[in-house]
Structure formats: C-alpha cells, structure tokens
Amino acid sequence: MKPRITADFWLALFFLASAILLIVIWIPLDTGTGLTEKVRRKLTIGDALGPTIAGVVIALGAVLTLLRQTSETLLTARNVRWMASLLGLFALSLILMRYVGPIIAAGMEDGYRPLRATPPWNYAGFLVGGTLMIGGLTGIAAKKFSLRDFAIGFAASLIIALFYDLPFDDLVLPPNGDV
User: What's the whole-model pTM score?
Assistant: First the structure.
C-alpha cells in the first residue's frame, strides 16, 4: 500500500519552507545588523536575533511534525478554511501592530517617530495587535469569542512587552524600529 501524504505533512512542509525563507531571505534583507553587533567594544543584540530565533523555533516545530505525523486524514476544505482564518487573523493583528501607534499620533506636531521608544506610545501597537492575536486565536479555537479571552490576551501582551522592553535599554518594541 502506498503511503498517503497527510494534512500534517503539508502543514509541516509549509512551515518548514516559511521558516527557511524567513531565516535565509527575509531577515537578512530586512535587518540592518546581524545576530549580534559590536558597538564601541560592547557586544549587543542585533536586529536579526529575535526574528532568527523565531524562525528556528518554527523550523524545529515543522521538523518535529514531519517526524511524527499523527493525522491519518488528507487535507480537506475544513483544514484550508482553518489555516485561512488563522492567516487572516495574523495579518490583521500585524497590520494593527504596525499602524496603531502612527495613527494615534498622526495629529501630533512631530508625528509618531520621536515617541516610538517612550511609554505608553511604544506599547500601543504591540498591545492592540497582540490582544487581537491572542484573544482571536482563543476564540477561533473555542469557536466562541469572549471578552475574557481578550482580557487575557491584553494581559499576556503587556507581560511580553514588559519582558521585552524593560531589561534592555537599546531595544525598541516591534514594529517600532521600522516606524
């Protein structure tokens, strides 16, 4: 009997290819520094470190999924709708994350750029996009949206932002470095 290509296989293959493209093409073309950077004899975190770690984690998950496929079903329209809803949610969340801060500060004299590293401005896009992403993921998975899920999403986004922002003086919360 010929082995069937399962939904898990296609999912893993998609994310492995995405991770490779992220690590090999997108990150080097989009960042100004490497993984680390030496500035005045001090080694600092480079712009590419965070996204590269994320890409490696995605690739590792894809490889582990390839090695242990559990699904016996073929890829169905339901699977494609699920992935499309997730892709739509991620796209909307990232768009909000990128543009909420500049939209809020659009009426100000100097705009958003001078404020992008100062609280609460640097948290605005991250919190709105992160809250939507976490609350939306929970709602999609449960097939029911609730205010509680979005409150948890807000708290989780705030904790992530604080852990990312507070210990490092030279890091700017994403995506504020590009604004």
Answer: 0.69
Model confidence over 127-141: pLDDT tens digits?
Answer: 999 999 999 999 999
d(CA 26, CA 9): 24
* Whole-angstrom distance, CA of residue 34 vs CA of residue 48: 5
